[in-house]
Amino acid sequence: EDVTLSIADDAGISVGGDCSISHSTTGKSSLNISLYNNAFWTVGTSGHTTDDFTINYDAAYKMLFKLYDNSAVTVYGDLSLDRANGDAGQDCELNQYSTSHVTIYDDLILKNTKNTKLMKYTLTDNAILTVKDDIDFSNAPAAQRLQLEAWSSSKIYIAGNFVRNSSHKYGVLSCNESSTLYYNGTTQQQEIAANAGDGSDSFTYANVVLNNTTSSAPQFTMEGISEIRDGYDLKFTDGIVSSDATHYFKILDNATVSDASNSSYVDGYIHKIGDDAFTFPVGDNGYYAPISIS
Q1: Is the pLDDT of residue 116 over 90?
Q2: Whether residue 112 has pLDDT greater than 90
Q3: 136: nearest Cα among 109, 160, 118, 105
Q4: CA angle 196–200–203, rounded 5-degree value
C-alpha cells in the first residue's frame, strides 16, 4: 500500500545531524510526503555543513515530496536526491509550490545513477530555492534523466556553480515564464553555465540576475555561450563578467539587459541579436563604458 506523510499548520521535523529517507519496497507502493501551511523540515545545525539530507528512491514505484503554503526545508549540509533503482518504477519528483522555501547550505545533488526513469525537481508559484554552494548534475546516466525546472515567478539562488560531468554534460535546467535565476556567489570567478549540453539536454535561462559580492574581479567567468531569450532580462547588480570570443552572453531578439554600472559590467565580448536599439553593458579596469546602437 501507499505510504503518506503530511505535516501542516506550523508543525515540523527537526533533526540535529544527518537525515535519510529511503523508499525501497519492491511492491507497487508510492511514498508521498507533503508539507502545508508553514510546516518545516530542518536537517542539521547551523555551521555544520556535513549534516546532510538524503532522499534515496530505490523502489519499484513512485516517490513524491511536495511543499506548499510557505512551508520550508532547511538543510545545513547537502540535499541529495538519489534515483538509484534499476529500470523498473516511475519518476521521482520534488515539487515546490506557493511561496515554499528550500535552503541548502552546501550542495544540491541530483542523482540518477542506474535508472531509465526521471528524477525531477520543479518550482512554481513564487517558490524559492537557495543553494549556497553547487547544484550538481554530474550523476546522470543519460539525457533526460535529471531535470530542474522553474516556473511562475519562482526563484533559484546559486552561490556556487552548476556541475555537469566533464565526459557527458547531461542534465536539464529549464527556466520559464517569469522565473529568475540569481548567481549570487561570494567568491571570485563564479562560472555562468553554458546552454549547451549533451544528447537532448541543455540549460535554458529566463531572467538572470548577476550579484556576486566578492571584491576580487572578475567575479564571473563564462563556461561557454549563455543565451538570454526573447522577453527576458539580464540584470547586472554586482560583479564583473570576464568573457572572450567563445565564452559570452548572447542577448537574443527582444531580450534586454539592465542596471550595468562601474561595479557590474562585461569585460570582453557580448553578442546581441535583432534590430532593436541596444546598449552594450561593457567596461574595463573598473569603469563602465557602455556602447549604444539605435
Answers
A1: no
A2: no
A3: 109
A4: 40
Give this prediction's pTM.
0.96
- Tens-place pLDDT, residues 177-189: 999 999 999 999 9
Q: Which residue, among 53, 50, 32, 33, has the nearest Cα to 42 in the 3D structure?
A: 53
In the chain, the amino acid numbered 198 is D
- pLDDT tier for residue 91 given thresholds of 50, 70 and 90: confident
pLDDT surpassing 60 at residue 86 = no
Task: Write a three-state SS string for the chain.
Answer: CCEEEEECCCCEEEECCCEEEEECCCCCCCEEEEECCCCEEEECCCCCCCCCEEEEECCCCCEEEEECCCCEEEECCCEEEEECCCCCCCCEEEEECCCCEEEECCCEEEECCCCCCCEEEEECCCCEEEECCCEEEEECCCCCCEEEEECCCCEEEECCCEECCCCCCCCEEEECCCCEEEECCCCCCEEECCCECCCCCEEECCEEEEECCCCCCCCEEECCEEEECCCCEEEEEECCEECECCEEEEECCCCEEECCECCECEECCEEECCCCCEEECEEECCEECCEEEC
Residue with cell 507497487: 28
For residue 25, the number of C-alpha atoms closer than 13 Å in the C-beta half-sphere is 11
Q: Which residues make Cβ contacts (< 8 Å) with residue 166, sequence separation at least 6?
A: none
Cell numbers for 79: 540535499
Q: Report the share of the chain in percent with pLDDT over 90.
A: 83
What is the length of the chain? Answer: 294
